[in-house]
Amino acid sequence: MSLYENRNMAVTIAGNRLVEDVSLKVEAGHCTAIVGASGSGKSLTCLSPFGLTSGVASGTMLLDGIDLGRAGSDQIRDVRRRLTGFIFQQPLTALTPHLTVGTQLQEATMQAGSARPSRRELARKLERVGLSRADERLDQFPHRLSGGERQRVMIAAAIAHDPRLLVADEPTSALDASLRAEIMVLLDELRAEKGLGLLLVSHDLASVEGHADQLVVMDRGAVVERGPARQVIADPEEDYTRRLVAATPRLQEPAPVLSRPGQILLETRGLGVAFDRPGWRRGKIRALADASIMLRQGESLAIVGGSGSGKSTLGRAIAGIGPVTEGEILWQGAALPERRNRSLEMRGLVQPVFQDPVASLDPHWQVGDIVAEPLRYLRPDLTQADRIEMTRRALSDVDLAEEFLTRLPASLSGGQAQRVAIARAIVASPQLLVLDEATSALDPLAGAEILKLLVRLQGENGLSLLFISHDIAAARRLCHRVVVMEEGLIVEAGEMQEVIDHPRYPATQKLIAAS
Amino acid sequence: MLKSHLALFPLLAIVTLVLLLPFLLPWSYDQIDWDAVRAPAFSGSHLFGTDEIGRDRLARLAAGTRITLMVAVAAALVSLIVGIAWGATAGWIGGRVDEAMMRIVDGLYALPFMFIVILLMVVFGRSILLVFVGIGLVEWLTMARVVRGQVMALKQRPFILAAEAAGTPSTVILLRHILPNIAGVALAYLMLTVPQVVMVESFLSFLGLGVQEPLTSLGILVKEGADDMDMTPLGLALPGGLLVVILVCLTIEGERLRDRFS
Question: pTM for the complete prediction?
Answer without folding.
Answer: 0.79
